[in-house]
TrEMBL record:
The keyword Cell membrane does not apply. InterPro entries: LysR-type_TF, LysR_HTH_N, LysR_subst-bd, WH-like_DNA-bd_sf, WH_DNA-bd_sf, YidZ_PBP2. Residues 6-63 form the HTH lysR-type domain. Pfam families: HTH_1, LysR_substrate. SUPFAM superfamilies: Periplasmic binding protein-like II, Winged helix' DNA-binding domain. GO terms for molecular function: DNA binding; DNA-binding transcription factor activity. Keywords: DNA-binding, Transcription, Transcription regulation. Gene3D superfamilies: Periplasmic binding protein-like II (3.40.190.10), Winged helix-like DNA-binding domain superfamily/Winged helix DNA-binding domain (1.10.10.10). This is LysR family transcriptional regulator. PROSITE patterns: HTH_LYSR. Belongs to the LysR transcriptional regulatory family.
Length: 307
């Protein structure tokens, strides 16, 4: 038997004929035409090399092969029905599933821990993983199911990606506590006096800060470059270097904080997922938890001169 030829719909027709004992009544059960039932029966007979039903008066009587097949067929159909129902419903208390995240910086430090705590309380059998991924691989990873969520300030455009803005933040200047640059309101002169830590994914990639400074005719001295915001605070507390961090990330650390001495566009953070997961109940539930936590935590930041 060629398993590639098996059509599960044929076994639903087989079950209906076995139950009804008549092609017309089977068609009524399935809400299809009698010729469609006859065609399905012919295909199943060919597949199994057995007549399955023989006419006895006005009744279709099952053959021994059909009698042996009906039990497993009904079990398989019931399992399929149950699986379909479960895929449409989601009970977080008993659900067992792993969700793959790729989040960086603000989301990883501020939102993900709160999401995991909430899931642990409401859905203890759900597992969250978070790993780094090259931006070029995100779309394929989401499409293949290797990745469930991608969250960052990066802007991705693909017809098969859905997104939701979960946060808005702004960059602030940070340095070690008691840093002399923060003794008075931070000026452009003070900002440029000290060396800086630049955050960039690539060595030759200009940051938004440096692009804006160039427009204003200024250039800061880069003393260190990092690909990740989370490594910066441990360097700042041991040096007189400055850095520009998202405000909601900066407040996690014991650092001096000031507004930038020039205007810069806010940071928008998005969560992305593949459109195929739009209506998946489990995915929707986790997605909503993430959105709710982000909205609750990321209230508008306070303007402050120093922390």
């Amino acid at each position: 038997m060629n398993l590639n030829r098996i059509d599960l719909n044929l076994f639903a027709v087989f079950d209906a004929i076995y139950t009804a004992g008549n092609l017309t009544r089977a068609a009524d059960i399935l809400c299809i035409t009698q010729p469609a039932v006859s065609n399905s029966l012919a295909r199943l007979r060919d597949l199994l090399n057995d007549p399955l039903f023989v006419r006895t008066g006005h009744t279709m009587s099952p053959t021994p092969v059909a009698q042996n097949l009906i039990g497993p067929a009904r079990q398989a159909l019931e399992l399929l029905r149950t699986s379909v129902l479960q895929s449409r419903e989601f009970n977080p208390e008993v659900a067992e599933k792993t969700f793959q995240f790729a989040c960086r910086d603000l989301i990883e430090a501020s939102i993900l821990p709160r999401l995991i705590a909430k899931i642990e309380a409401q859905a203890p059998a759900i597992t969250i993983t978070n790993y780094d991924i090259d931006k070029k691989q995100v779309v394929n990873a989401l499409a293949s199911g290797q990745l469930d969520f991608y969250a960052d300030s990066e802007t991705l455009t693909d017809q098969y990606l859905a997104r939701h803005k979960i946060a808005e933040d702004r960059l602030v200047v940070v340095g070690r506590p008691e840093h002399p640059a923060f003794s008075d309101p931070l000026t452009m002169e003070s900002f440029l006096t000290y060396g800086h830590i630049k955050v960039s994914q690539r060595q030759d990639q200009a940051s938004e800060v440096d692009i804006e400074l160039s427009k204003l005719g200024h250039q800061r001295r880069i003393a260190m470059q990092s690909h990740h915001f989370l490594t910066i605070p441990s360097v700042l507390v041991k040096t007189d270097l400055l850095a520009c961090l998202p405000s909601h990330l900066a407040k996690h650390y014991n650092l001096a904080v000031s507004e930038l001495p020039f205007a810069l566009q806010p940071l928008d953070y998005y969560v992305y997922w593949h459109v195929s997961a739009n209506e998946d109940p489990a995915h929707r539930w986790v997605r909503q938890q993430l959105i709710d936590i982000a909205q609750a935590f990321l209230s508008p930041p306070l303007n402050q001169h120093a922390a």
